[in-house]
Amino acid sequence: MDNSSKHIMKKLFFFSLFLLAGQFLFAQQNLSADILWKFGRLSDPHISPDGKTVIYGVRTTDMSANKSTNIIYKMDVKGGNPVSITEKEDNANSVTWRPDGKKIGYLSAKGGDMELWEMNPDGTDKKQVTNIKDGIDLFEYAPDMKHILYSRSVQVDQTIQQKYPNLKLDKVKGQTFDELNIRHWDTWNDGTYSHVFFASYNNGTAGNDEVDILKDKPYDSPLKPHGGGEQIAWTADGTGIAYTCKKMRGTDYMVSTNSDIYLYHIGNGKEENLTIGNMGYDQNPSISPDGKYMAYVSMEHDGYEADKNRLMLLDLNTKKTTDLSANFDQVTGSTIWSTDSKVLYFTSETNATSQLYAYHVDKSKIEQITNGNQDYNEISVGAEGKKTIIIGSQTTMTRPAELFSIDPVKKTDVQITFTNKSILDGIKTSKVEKRMIKSTDGKEILTWVIYPPDFDASKKYPTLLYCQGGPQSAVSQFFSTRWNFALMAAHGYIIVAPNRRGLPGFGQAWNDEISGDYGGQCMRDYNSAIDAVAKEPFVNKDKLGAVGASFGGYSIYWLAGHNTDHKFKVFIAHDGMFNMVSWYGSTEEMWFANHDQNGPYWKNPDNYKKFSPHEFVQNWNTPILIISNEKDYRVPFTQGLEAFTAAQIMHIPSKLLYFPDENHWVLKPQNSMLWHTVFYDWLDKYLK
């Protein structure tokens, strides 16, 4: 071989090494819990007043520190390279543009308490604006920038020390109660309430003249436990504050959903109830930029928290209210006005997805803007000249949130952020399939089937039935750090996720059908879905499992008591109701229990006996993992303890995973890693 040939062979040798190295470098792997927590979680988009720039947050996790940090980015609304404008030490959140676009406001605890800060649009000149003892929870600029509003916690009810001043009980932690509302979600009632304040504001300086618009009143605004800034709004001229409040307390508060929207006039302190005639939830006021209208969402019936969320329009001059969704058999999500007040945009669930819709005021018409297998969550609307600019955060079952630019005329969308592209490029993708499966009554159930990466139809796979919580919460295109279908599939499981009876997006009648019938048609829907998919040759019928949380956990306990044919080989129940009688006596939102169980157990004992999973525990024959959390007051951890005790006494293979520092969800990063480890170890033990 001559030198030239040797040189060519040498080149080919090194080129082949380069290709092998490249294959190794870019080899894809399956999604794992560790990778799941490496994703940046994008949220809170806001378009600048001039319509040219969008700001948003990306939250990342430090697993060793067991905490997450939010950083604010900005980019052109058309896309491009995002630029960070805050640092990790800022941990900025609740970001928004000042109405003149010259400053960006955000909340940060960098100075100690959570306060309002401002910075230039390029992230320079960060300055603290408020200095409120114990900090604030949210804020909003008045449109004329003469005031700001914010919420913070205030002590209204007497403390134990105030009740018993002569006892000098400065170290006591005990509390006394003489009415309900003793605890909610994950917090005991300590006599503090969330109140709305306003104060003067002048070019980056907040005045010391704050006014508590609920002074000395034992009411919350926003509503606990999950209400936020969406429940409060300035009027267009900056002279009034519309706020959501449920002006009742104690036992009355816990059995009713009758909230209202009030308009407080900051000039004279007077207020009016704008929704006095409605007995269900009224919340989330959104004032049109021209000041003519207030849009809001409303439920008609008191005590029914999953009633149809109607889209309402109030004429602020005539006080006439119109139900814009009277002929729209879907629930309404978040709402936002166009800058010219001609269009009201809102999200709504349809066919197991969440899409963007528009109501045209002049045409009195609703039209669907987006379509496809995705969820649109947060939406921001702006304008550049006369052109409407819409940016929305979108998720799918296989991709975390990214921002998309939406054209409301062409009804198209284009992805403009790629926060997690480098991670996603290294992960194998799961196939998501939509199936329509007939239930026992002939009605079709939209069922998602998620396949493992590198799915091979010639093989047989263990398969999981996923049982949704809520009960009325759609199995849509969500991407979660907890119940993540792509992660389940990456572990080698086929996932069957039915939108059974009682889920929104298929008309209100379908949504209502679960009430008073927990163990009825919805359970037959579950069995219909898993039985249909199990007929496929690639499903291992001898390796079927079922998993779920909340009502999904209840579903697992129910299925465990009716698994007489040994169809399921393993169960996992997270924070599910087990004993409906003891659950009724220990949960907190009594309107929920009263509505869905047709009253308390002493008035309707037959329903509790018929549909309480503990009544069928003698039939248990299947290994079960039970997960329960100490700070879960919606489904107290004793429900899981009762179920675990029963399983152990009956010598059913069982395990209890208990978190003393979590509520209904598992939120802390390291707890999540343990949750996922135990979850998949349990499944693998019995299905692989």
Keywords:
688 residues; alpha+beta; eight-stranded mixed beta sheet
How would you sum up this structure, described in words?
- With 688 residues, the chain is of the alpha+beta class.
- It is 18% helix and 33% strand.
- It contains 14 helices and 39 strands.
- It has an 8-stranded mixed sheet with strand order 32-33-35-34-36-37-38-39, sandwiched between helices. Strands 9, 10, 13, 14 and 15 form a 5-stranded antiparallel sheet that branches. The protein has a 4-stranded antiparallel sheet with strand order 1-2-3-4, with no helix packed on it.
- Mean pLDDT is 96; it is low at 8-25.
- Strand tally is 39
- Contiguous uncertain segments of 5+ residues: 8-25
Average pLDDT level:
96
Counting helices, strands and paired strands, the structural category is alpha+beta
Radius of gyration: 27 Å
| Broad shape | globular
Strand order of the largest sheet: 32-33-35-34-36-37-38-39
Fraction of residues in H or I helices: 10-25%
Biggest sheet record: 8 strands, mixed
